[in-house]
Backbone:
């Protein structure tokens, strides 16, 4: 065995009494503990913190590379001929330790990305080049990852890799990823490679086999509400009927960039282009021209942005000189050219004039605004999607029939867009000017945030922010006037109003609705994500044996995060297939040496156990490996391997026994849901009727059902039923001063299937 520390051979100093120990755990950093004893005439010095460690066998197999985690401390070893003797305790961690010392910057949720892309993004976020991704790009899609502020690289890399049902380990500055079970170690009783005396199975006590699984998740947005109010010229604070859905406060502020560092931060920004065209200076981000080509000089945020809820992109303190051309403050589909811009600002010049115009779905749209090169401007793009999870999570497991994967569907959405500009001159800020108030039919699920794309931009930008404002959107209609969108946000953001988490729409002084002005607040209400799945075949098999047919498990899924009831149903489906399999609860340990295995054993590998005397032929997943080495010639590494299958110990799906108090149980089993009426529009509302357009394709034999209560949809007539119609344009009667209507689609089945969530109309207007 060879031990090298900081390039110096320390093999001779390895303590002969206490063994060298290497601990490996699935998708976690490995650790190495060893003890050094120095001879009286030794020239070796005591190692120092952060020095590299290298452990290899005589065969050339590298068992550990990493760095010393803390300054080695002496441990009394006894009394020798020359006096007290000491050994030094050296503890190291694998190569990730250098990246873990660089805490990740804040950011938003990254959804529906490949694991390889995400890991490279995590590398970039640390700003360290001490580790890189080896092998072929790992293309398996993961559901979503939202790094907590200040979290470590290894924590997030482990969560992401687990979602892909994969395993990573690091050696020699390279991070390797392979599918769980990608390396199989055969242990066969008939071949003499399986020693039954070294095999121990553990009895499962945490949970039993299950065939009726209920999964709880996070809070989710449910009903699509449009709530109407009437202004009186005085009231500024209006109570909403229900609390609106918001992301947690820690995830609401996605980007807050002041451009006040010495240089552009490579751990959050991607810069494509020749040096010098964009750089930081006293005025923030400076634009110094371009190569004249569209999409070749671009500054973009390193992670894709999930286009969900109400996003506000704000570029502050923008100044531009004549001759400028390019794009500013934009969401792009990824190719970075003007044609790929979904919403942003197009910069053009003609002579001494510089013009800014909204760039919507790749085309200049709305009002063109000529700026003064001597002034600064604030540019804002607000994009509102009623959806929050733009793809369902993918849940992976393993059962009797092999690999299990559920979920991964894209969630389509339209969007409303508001683009504005605000002039600032001599310390005074003017009123925002709306350049575009419209919609996008098909909003991308993930967008690339482009701070600037320069054809020939000349000027500067002082700050750039991106915030998720929740699920709200406000549209006003003055008496005898046309509807227009109200600006949401804070006063410094040029806003007219904001929506509070406690359920109020609040207008700032001077912006309160006038007498006779109607305004509509669109938002999503709050519910708890829950899903359930049943393994009917397993229940029938147990019943045929005279055993209790139903075995229930209920809990929560923590990774991949279950952000919706659809996620919960998919997770429950994957879990019930794994939980009812014949080997679901198999776990235990196996002991051997490197002579028992054809290659080194890592967590995520599989042990193929073949023992005819036990009627055993099964693959089991390695969860941890403990290697010990004591001075031997030739070297001999002892392995203690812990293994477990999916239901015995969480792998790609992380669970908790916690059941939220607001979970609505029992959940329905494998329901069939129709599409939601997520884009309901009201063409007119008065004291007598409401003219509606559902903007959907009705299912065969079905239509739209309207009721006075939510979650009360069923065939037949009762006092809560207002209307059933087979038309997508229909009229609702006003019934009360505070009308509450809930709408879902239904189909021609018996009994009918319905939409999962309601479209809700709340009318707070006088009758007559």
Residues:
């Amino acid at each position: 065995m060879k031990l090298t520390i900081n390039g110096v051979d320390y093999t001779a100093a390895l303590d002969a009494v206490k063994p060298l120990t290497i601990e490996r755990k699935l998708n976690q950093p490995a650790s190495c503990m060893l003890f050094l004893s120095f001879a009286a005439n030794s020239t070796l010095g005591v190692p120092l913190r952060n020095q590299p460690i290298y452990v290899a066998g005589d065969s050339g197999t590298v068992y550990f590379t990493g760095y010393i985690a803390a300054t080695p401390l002496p441990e009394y070893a006894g009394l020798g001929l020359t006096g007290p003797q000491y050994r030094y305790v050296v503890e190291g961690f694998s190569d990730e330790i250098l990246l873990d010392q660089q805490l990740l910057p804040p950011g938003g949720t990254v959804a529906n990305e490949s694991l390889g892309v995400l890991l490279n993004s995590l590398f970039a976020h640390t700003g360290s080049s001490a580790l890189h991704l080896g092998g072929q790009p790992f293309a398996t899609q993961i559901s979503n990852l939202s790094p907590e502020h200040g979290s470590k690289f290894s924590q997030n890399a482990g969560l992401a890799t687990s979602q892909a049902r994969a395993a990573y380990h690091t050696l020699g500055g390279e991070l390797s990823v392979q599918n769980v079970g990608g390396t199989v170690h055969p242990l066969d009783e008939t071949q003499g490679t399986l020693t039954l005396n070294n095999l121990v199975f553990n009895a499962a006590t945490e949970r039993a086999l299950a065939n009726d699984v209920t999964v709880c998740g996070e809070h989710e947005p449910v009903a699509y509400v449009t709530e109407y109010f009437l202004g009186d010229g005085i009231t500024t604070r209006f109570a909403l009927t229900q609390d609106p859905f918001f992301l947690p406060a820690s995830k609401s502020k996605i980007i807050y960039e002041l451009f006040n560092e010495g240089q552009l931060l490579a751990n959050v920004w991607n810069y494509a282009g020749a040096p010098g065209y964009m750089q930081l200076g006293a005025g923030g981000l400076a634009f110094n021209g371009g190569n004249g080509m569209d999409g070749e000089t671009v500054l973009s945020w390193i992670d894709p942005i999930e286009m969900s809820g109400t996003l506000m992109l704000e570029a502050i303190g923008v100044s531009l000189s004549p001759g400028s051309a390019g794009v500013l403050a934009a969401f792009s589909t990824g190719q970075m050219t003007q044609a790929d811009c979904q919403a942003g600002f197009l910069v053009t010049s003609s002579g001494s004039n510089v013009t800014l115009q909204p760039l919507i779905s790749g085309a200049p749209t709305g009002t063109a605004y000529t700026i003064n090169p001597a002034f600064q401007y604030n540019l804002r793009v607000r994009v509102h999607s009623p959806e929050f999870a733009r793809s369902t999570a993918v849940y992976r497991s393993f059962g009797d029939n092999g690999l299990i994967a559920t979920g991964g569907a894209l969630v389509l959405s339209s969007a409303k867009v508001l683009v504005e500009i605000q002039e600032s001159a001599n310390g005074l800020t003017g009123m925002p000017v709306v350049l575009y108030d419209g919609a996008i039919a098909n909003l991308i699920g993930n967008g690339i945030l482009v701070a600037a794309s320069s054809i020939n931009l000349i000027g500067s930008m002082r700050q750039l922010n991106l915030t998720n404002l929740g699920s709200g959107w406000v549209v006003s209609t003055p008496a005898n006037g046309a509807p227009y969108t109200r600006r949401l946000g804070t006063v410094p953001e040029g806003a007219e109003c904001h929506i509070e988490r406690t359920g109020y729409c609040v207008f700032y002084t001077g912006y309160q609705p006038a007498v006779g002005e109607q305004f509509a607040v669109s938002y999503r209400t709050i519910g708890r994500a829950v899903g359930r799945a049943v393994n009917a075949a397993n229940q029938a098999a147990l019943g045929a044996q005279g055993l209790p047919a139903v075995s229930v498990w209920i809990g929560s899924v923590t990774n991949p995060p279950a952000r919706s009831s659809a996620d919960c149903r998919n997770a429950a489906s994957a879990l019930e297939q794994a939980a009812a399999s014949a080997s679901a609860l198999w776990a235990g340990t196996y002991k051997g040496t490197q002579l028992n295995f054809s290659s080194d054993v890592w967590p995520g590998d599989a042990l193929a156990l073949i023992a005819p005397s036990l009627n055993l032929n099964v693959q089991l997943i390695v969860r941890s490996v403990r290697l010990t080495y004591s001075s031997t010639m030739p070297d001999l590494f002892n392995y203690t391997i812990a293994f477990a299958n999916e239901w015995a110990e969480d792998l790609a799906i992380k669970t908790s026994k916690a059941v939220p108090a607001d979970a609505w149980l029992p959940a329905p089993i494998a329901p069939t849901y129709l599409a939601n009426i997520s884009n309901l529009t009201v063409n007119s509302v008065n004291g007598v009727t409401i003219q509606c357009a559902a903007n959907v394709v009705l299912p065969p034999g079905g239509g739209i059902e309207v009721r006075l209560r939510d979650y009360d949809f069923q065939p037949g007539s009762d006092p809560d039923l207002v209307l059933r119609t087979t038309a997508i344009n229909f009229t609702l009667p006003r019934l009360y001063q505070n009308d509450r209507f809930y709408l879902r689609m239904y189909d021609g089945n018996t009994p009918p299937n319905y939409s999962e969530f309601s479209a809700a109309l709340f009318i707070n207007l006088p009758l007559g």
